[in-house]
Amino acid sequence: MIYTWVGLLLSHARADCQLEAGIETSFLQISIENVTLHSVSEGDAWIGMENMHLSIYLICFLLIPICAVAFAGPRWALATMITCADSLCTELPMAIFALVAEDPFSLGALVATKPLGQALATPLVIQFTRQRELHSMKLGLLLQSAGLFLQAFTPSLGAWFAARAAQGVGSALMLGAISAMMGDATKETGDSGRGLFTYSMWLGLICGAPFGGICFAIESFLPFLFLGLADLILLTALHFKMDAPSKPMPGIPRDVLAPLRYPMISRPLALLCLVVMYGAALQAMIFKVMEEDLQLGVVPASFTWLFQAWPMILTSLLLGPAAQGIGFRLIMLTGLLVVGSGALIVDDKSFMCLIAELVVAGLALGAENATVPRLLEDVASRNFDDTSATWTLLNLGQQIGYVLGPLIGAVLYHVGGLRTMCRAFGVLLIGYALSHTVD
Known about the structure:
Elements (H helix, E strand, L loop, with lengths): L1 H15 L26 H4 L5 H21 L2 H17 L5 H4 L3 H25 L4 H21 L3 H29 L8 H25 L3 H20 L21 H31 L4 H6 L2 H21 L1 H17 L6 H33 L4 H51 L1
């Protein structure tokens, strides 16, 4: 019965999507030629009418199960969907940015704006939203939704910068509060909340760029409009279903920089920051190369992101339980040497070479994510009564990597292209690994 309704829905959408010249397009034959010709100045071409009916049908079709789970499902499902929506918001436009920002500096700055806004807003959020976690999450969802609507209907580079900044502040408001609320929401499952939080982030990481590319190929505004409406649905469900958490989110530790005096904490943090920097720079610039130099469309370029996302997740899952037995130091330094060596031999003219580098970068990111947090937790628990400062530094190190990576990558890309960018990071990564191998 369900498949019959889906067939009727797509058949009706197909009939409504006939072009004036009599050329018929189907859901699986939508051309993205016109999409790749969009520029920032073409405001009148950003919102087309060719596939408007199909866009409306798809939005309604996708929002119905989201609405059902948000209002009728358990509270942990709502908390998981909010976390996944934030991850989707980050990854959704990655393959689209290269069409909006023409030069590498604008592209790098656009990618870095959201993590920069999140990093700057996090201390203020923690300071002023304790005991107000529910209101903080509502405001965060509202800001993210407003930023997505701005991206959907305003193809201006300045507007997109403002939208990404608002989304970064929204992420800080949401993620700071979701950690306090996830524990209450998952009591019925017996989970601490950390597992569901991680898996929902990974789901958004995997689906974000491909989903954004497919929807953008149908209509430019479609991915942003859909996710903005989904955020409003989650906001409404949050208002009616969630209560304030029983335990407030932790505040900022008094001496947050004190753990950096210990090399067993500062060195793994620097290592993770370097790997995240390279991964963020590669993600920011590789779509530009694929879409402009290799002439790939938005959809195939967006799916190449899976070659980094899946190895990262699988490596983190597989190495996590065995990290202590194998050795934290061995895994971390091996990951640095592997990704650095791969960066040195990148050929930006070869599609297969770029795919191989995405896989290598994903493996290295997964290895570091599997070892560094566990190592820091082990060291902090043996040397400090309160480990919250270590977790704050871990989050700060990752945010610094996500901000500096695209900015430094843009400068290096402007100087000599993707190959120069990768080789510079490769020398840095291998040099750091060798310097600590000698110690």
